[in-house]
Design a protein that fits this description.
Largest sheet: 12 strands, antiparallel
Structural class: mainly beta
Radius of gyration: 45 Å
Helix content: under 10%
Strand content: over 45%
Number of strands: 31
Number of domains: 3
Length: 414
Amino acid sequence: MAILTVNPSLDGLVYHSLGAYAGIDWADLLVAAGNGANYTDAQGSITHFTADFGADKWANLLRSILLFDTSSIPVGATILAATLSVYGYEKVDTGSFNPITQVYSSNPASDSVLVPADFTTLGSTPFCDSPIAYADFVLDAYNDFVLNAAGIAAISTTGLTKLGFRNANYDVAGISPTWQSIKSGTTRIRFNEEIEERRPKLVITYSLVVVPTATTDPATSVESAAATPNGTLNDDGGEACDCGFEWGETDTYGNTTPTQSRTTGQTFAQVISGLDPGQTYHFRAFATNAAGTSYGADRTFTTLVVAPTVTTDPATALSAIAATPNGTLDTDGGEACDCGFEWGLDTGYGTTTPTQSKTTIETFSQVIGGLFPGTTYHFRAIATNSAGTSYGADRTFATALVISRAYALARREL
């Protein structure tokens, strides 16, 4: 958080003033063109009005303009508060009008001089929620006008902030004071030509938001289908950040987690599910604020391998002394598997074929020779990875019978 205090680059008063017995109605005075300006005096009124000699006529109305160079506020700063302070010099209320002084916008034609036409350039939206009544306007001390949201929004970060004063309860309200001959209401201040400690000043409090920094921490709770990436928000850059992770099978990522709101020093984590077993995933932390997004370094985690699943398919190429069992590796559990068969005369099997390296959906087979003719054999597929061994269902095949030539001829003669 930082504070900027600036004095006006231009300040002074603008008015419409008439001679004695030349006064006009209050409503006409409010919309009249200005006919005077002063921006060189060390003291002067910031609000003022005077009744004329003639009944219900008014001789003059004054407003004031103050410009502040606020271009030194850094780009990207957030203005948190602002106070316009003016040093009271004199006040007059001969007609018991109780004039109220309020801050408004201004828009003079020049940034370096005031001219009469600037009288009509002041706005009517109040920039302070607590305007100062006549009784509360202090002399020989600062009067502080705390700017509201509209006033803060009017502060420029690239050039001049243009403010001004008007009477709130008669000038801006459009309500005529109760006329009393040559009575007046005035609040006067020290202008910028005064010594330093009495000059008007605009005090601005702001925070400067910069791009945050985040660290990618190791993943935890790594399972076969889920993992939890972790991160730390090292510096939020001046405001709470939206923090999350990018992740995917490569360092181009392609997936983004939901975000969490974090501030400097806080950690964050997200559970990622629906992952493939035995797969290496890349991830990195990110943090976003109004100034932009930053990323942590790339990290990886590898999900756990699970036991495979395998199907025993029907045997083929049956003969009297040989057969070919078949199988399918339905899922490899995250890594290549050694696939083969157990076989024998019953479900105790007893014999195992050589294995083949297979991955998900691949098929495998093995020729079994040296079998007995006309015999039923049991077999089942097996698949093994680092997580364990799985088995397919039991199946059977029967080898062909062997018939002698003499027996076959005899059967044919019959």
